[in-house]
Amino acid sequence: MTMYREKRFEEIKRLLTERKELSIEDIMQAVGVSRDTARRDVVALAASGAGRRTRGGIVSLTFGHTVPSYSERLKLFSTEKTAMAKQALSLIKPGGVYFIDDSTTLLKLSQSIDVPVTIYTHSLDNAIALAVKSDVTLRVLGGKLNHHGRFFFQPENLAQLSRIAFDAAFIGATAMSRNGVYFPYADDADVKATLAEAARQVIVVSETQKFQIQAPYRGFPLAAVDVLITERALTKKERAWFAPTTQLMVATPEASD
Fold first, then answer.
1. N or C of the chain: less Cβ packing under 10 Å?
2. Which InterPro entries does the record associate with it (predicted)?
3. Which CATH number fits domain 2-59: 1.10.10, 3.90.1570, 3.90.550, 3.20.14?
């Protein structure tokens, strides 16, 4: 039993090095243990200094100190993100006009849309996913490609977006604090600020771990968020940062089954 536990810990540490964050469900699937055993493993690994325990699992000790690239974030695709994308999909209605942001979770949303809608995006990966869907009218914003973030931008996009009353803008946060939703690039933050003004609904799809990350450019204040889709209920302190009218949708892995 001791040897099996040691091998299990080595596999969990290997995955943590690769992915930077693991949920309890990720650990259960990776090493074939029960939820209680996975939780005990997280406690033991955190105590040994192998990572930092979170409410939903464990993260590497360097998690949150830098903003990973889009390709790095794709490796972190978890069961929680799948469940969050499914919650977002429930808000897509036939005939609607939507903006979908350059988030890895929202890439899963783009891949899942199966109703006739009009989608605007500046994301290269969303555009590729949506291009094969005959029911989707796809509008891709142009400009120079940011290879790290994998989105297009040109200043003219801001005027174009400001003229569209989107039914909803689905936005993925890079970082969140009591002061607002933040992004690593000034031009991308300008896009999000424009969308927050133009859209009838601002829907932020983000894990609560983004409260632990810092990014330099604010897109909009938390008061502008109409719906927050995340993987757990907010603490009382976190909830107080948002407007009382902000709807919280908690996505659990069970919700994606």
1. N
2. Carb_Metab_HTH_regulators, DeoR-like_C, DeoR_HTH, NagB/RpiA_transferase-like, Tscrpt_reg_HTH_DeoR_CS, WH_DNA-bd_sf
3. 1.10.10
